Amino acid sequence: MNNIIILGADHNGVAHKRQLADSLRAEGYVVIDIGPYGITESVDYVDYAQQVSHIVGETPNARGILICGTGVGMSIAANRYEGVRAALVHNTKTAPKCREHNDANILCLGSWVNTYEINKEIVDLWMNEAFGEGRHNKRLAKLENAGSKIVFTNGVFDILHTGHLELLQFSKRLGDRLVVAINSDASVKSLKGENRPINNEANRKKLLESLIEVDEVIIFDDNLEELRNQIEPNIVVKGGEWTAEQVRERDNIPEDIEIKLFPLVQDYSTTNTIRKIQNLDGWQKNDF
């Protein structure tokens, strides 16, 4: 459960914010209320959206809730900041979907649009919904601000296929430098058997380096964690059906490194490609 909630409002959202803070604290959340605290003076929603967005953008797993009259101004202001995906929500159907599909980390509410009771129901649905990952990761990658981020991924990359290309395209969209680590020939034999790799490490490296998405290719043996620590990436991309937290625990990835999951592309794998080649009928040259 994401435990830290940052609350902010303008003068029109103070009353709802106060009730929400009390309720969330009673439910066990760590609530940080940045204000305002009174309703007698008008304030600029932009100032409070900026503060909440800065905290959420810089704090892993934190979420924010912003409340003004309509929520519109808060959502426009919040989405100007890196690392923020602010969703304007006025109904209970949208509340869980913006988490499942969009991984929204700031919820924007309107005190003129809904009663406190409805807004609280929206908050509950939003807080209890998890990001769906899978296919949604590819779409979110297109929204990311690249900035000066190093993205790191690894694999054998023996016979390149569509799944590999989509993984590399997905990874590149997340940052401005993509570093790919490939298993050495000795490492591949240990993992896949004596008949692998089909292409040696020098050729695999050369082929990957020819792709526009890839900035650097590094060959490794069994020292992947050590190599990753030397590179100090901002983002690690993994393919498969694991959750981000399972990957973090399994691969011992520090909390300050973001993990992005790329779903496996159906029907594409190096093993399947090799099997199809092995099952081809023999051929015979015909003289005409």
Q: Within the largest sheet, what's the order of strands?
A: 2-1-3-5-4
Into which percent range does the helicity of residues fall? 25-40%
CATH architecture call of the largest domain: 3-Layer(aba) Sandwich
Number of helices: 12
* Helix and strand sequence: EHEHEHEHEHHEHEHHEHEHEH
- The domain count comes to 2
CATH superfamily placement of the largest domain: HUPs
Structural class, by secondary structure, is alpha/beta
User: How large is the radius of gyration?
Assistant: 24 Å
Briefly note the CATH topology name of the largest domain: Rossmann fold
Explain this structure to me?
40% of the residues lie in helices and 18% in strands. The protein is α/β, with parallel strands linked by helices and 288 residues long. The protein has 2 domains: 4-131, 3-Layer(aba) Sandwich (Ribose 5-phosphate Isomerase B, Chain: A); 137-276, 3-Layer(aba) Sandwich (Rossmann fold). The strands form 2 sheets. It has a 5-stranded parallel sheet, with helices on both faces. Strands 8-7-6-9-10 form a 5-stranded parallel sheet, with helices on both faces. Strand 1 (4-9), helix 1 and strand 2 (30-33) form a beta-alpha-beta unit. Helix 2 (45-58) packs across helix 3 and helix 4 packs parallel to helix 5. It is elongated and about 80 Å long.
